[in-house]
Structure formats: C-alpha cells, structure tokens
C-alpha cells in the first residue's frame, strides 16, 4: 500500500501541505488485520495515534456486566492517542471489520510533531476536541439512560407488589361474593327484632372502627386466638371455622365478644348471623387492601410526575426542596431497601423556597443520593442523612452517609468529567460533573468533605 496516497485521503488532512504527510508516512508503521481480529482490549495502554486506512474497527464499551456496541471507526478516521491528550488506556474494545489496515504513529514522535509540524498538530488537536465533545455527549446520553434504566427497574419493582395485591384481592373478593346468594338465603330466614339488628350492626361498626388503632398481634398470639375461636365456632355448628376464626382475629374479636352476641341471638340464628358478620369483615378487609395498594401506586405515579415535572415548562420557580428530595427518595426506595439503609430526614418546616429549575435539581438529588447508596452497598448499619438549613441568603443541603469515604488524594478530582471511582461499566464519571454544572447554573456551589465513616456533600444555592 502507498501510505502517502492513503494519508492524503484522510478528510482532516485535505488542506495540509504534502510535507506533513510525507513526515507521517516516514515515521509511522502500517499493520494489516483479519476480519474479527481483536485490535485492543479495555484497559490496554494506548501509546500510538491510529488512522484507519482500509476496513473499519467496531468499538464496544463496558456497560454493566456486558460489552455494548457503540460505534465503528471507519476508513479515514483518526483514533487512539493524540498530541496533548491525557489518554492512558483504551476505554473500549476494538475488533477489525473486514480486512483492516491501520496506520500507527508512536507517541515517541509527538515532541518532534509538535515542534516541526504545528499545522498538522493543530489539525490533530481539533480532531481531539471534536472527539471529546462527541464522546462526552454520548457518555451523557448513556449516563441518562443508565439512570433511567435504574429508576425504571426500581419503579417496576415498586409497582409490582401493589398491583399484584390488587389482582389477588380482586380475585378473592370475587370468590367471596360468589358465596353470597347461599348465605343470603340463611340470613332472610332469621327472626330478629329491629333492636337486635341495630345491636349486631353496631357490633360490626365498632369492631371495624376499633381495629384501625389496634396494635397488631404476634404470630403466636394470633395462632392461639384462632384455635380458641375455631373451637367456639365449631361448637355452635359453624362451617369453615378456621377461615372464619382468622377473619375474626384480624378484627380483634375474641370468645367474650361472641358470648355477648349469643345472648341476643336465637340459637338457630347464630350460624347465619356469624357468617354474615364474617362476610362483612372479609369485604371490609379486601376493600381496605385494594385501597392501600391503589394508594401506593398513586403515590408512586404522583412522585414520578413531580420528580420529572413533566407537566411544566422548564423555567425557574419557587419550590419546596423537601418535596423534590422526598420524591427522589421514593424513586430510589427499592435501592434503599435492597442495601438495608436507614434514611434520616432533617429538613425544617419553615425552610425558605428557593427559585430553581425543579427537574434539574431533582437530577442533583438523584446523583448525590444514588452515589451515597452505592457507597453503602454491602455495609452493615448503613445510614443516609439528608439535612437542610438556611444560612443567611443561602440554603444548604447536606447529603451525609457513613460509607467508606473518599480518599483525600482524589477529593479534588471527583467533579471532573469522566473521573469515577466505580468499577468499569458501573460509572461513567459524569454524574458529579452534571451536579456541578446544574448547581453553577443556579449560581451555587457543591462541595465534599470525607473521611472513613463520614462523607458529606453540601449543596449551596441562593434563595433569590
């Protein structure tokens, strides 16, 4: 292959004097690779500038536990290490596409390149700037998608339990109501005065009302009461005694209560009346469970709406910080439970409402709280404290965790783009950079103080 002719075909080199390309052709080397050949792997030291002269290179980047395709370096594309670049190692894996020819210029020639060929150096620096901008944009998009994926997985998990409870309760209610006609025939045969009917109704209403404030029974207490009630119910000829006893125990009915009912009922009416009472309690319990499950779903949906602020235009407005923080905690509740973290909120009721971009600030809380939860993963007695206070014309919000801490040597780097302490594929190094940019947009400041067992991120934003 004529290297000089191939270099002239590189789009970035179109307007360069031929002398620069002659120098490149003399100093560099060319290698040929078969289709599917691995050219470099993740973490491999990068010591050369590379130009694809023929074929292409598929690039795969770590995401989670897999390698995900994110692009192809095609013919004429400049890759690898460039002058003034701080790149140390490959951030991806590269595989040859078809028969691929690669031009390489070792970094040992960069000093001469910068000194003797400033025009060529300028072209390469511009190429590096464009590459960093494109890569940053792609990383930001990936970071947002990863965050969205984690939130979506958490929401799906949170919604699954109450939605499953609604289905289960609805099926049970349907089965329960299917027995009503048979029980109704027994009820209409009851001979009771209006006073007796009123007493039975009052008994049911009082028990339903009282059950709300009762302390739940232990499993042993509940089992003992069920056995006692089942024996009592069996003695008066009731069917399904254990099922009925279980329902009665849920509403804190004991044999003393049933003895009182016996005094006002005819012996032949007792089974029908007790069945009707059990039916009323069962319906009440199932409806309450459906209501509670639906309420939990409503809370989640409301939190999502408030978190994304999707019904408002993106403009500054007065907002209560506690609401945004609580919505964020709701979004991350699955992770809090998974890591067995205790969350402590210390936000005063009279905290002033700053003028903020609500959705943007929710991104701040998400990144900081999510990072704290990652730090607490696998640690016993993990605690996350969220504290806010007014300081003159500013509001300070502190996100505090008792995780392992951030080494002092890197504390001044954690807000830099692409700097991350997380394993490859788990962190992109953009989360705290996004936090810093959003806080700067609010004319504020974010700082960190950390030592083992105590890390504090402090967000400072003006009230006005």
Describe the structure.
The protein is of the alpha+beta class and 464 residues long. It has three domains: 140 residues, Jelly Rolls; 115 residues, no CATH class; 153 residues, 2-Layer Sandwich (Heat Shock Protein 90), CATH 3.30.565. The protein is built from 14 helices and 13 strands. Strands 1, 2, 3, 4, 5 and 6 form a six-stranded antiparallel β-sheet that branches. Helix 4 packs antiparallel against helix 10 and helix 10 packs across helix 11. The radius of gyration is 34 Å and the shape is elongated. It starts with a helix and ends with a strand. 26% of the residues are buried.
Question: What distinguishing features does this structure have?
Answer:
alpha+beta; about 475 residues; 6-stranded antiparallel β-sheet; about 20% strand; 3 domains; Jelly Rolls; Heat Shock Protein 90
Structural class: alpha+beta
Distance between the termini: 66 Å
Number of strands: 13
Segments where pLDDT lies below 50 for 5+ residues? 423-430
Give the domain tally: 3
The CATH topology assignment of the largest domain is Heat Shock Protein 90
Protein name: histidine kinase
GO molecular function: ATP binding
EC number: 2.7.13.3
Domain Histidine kinase: 284-464
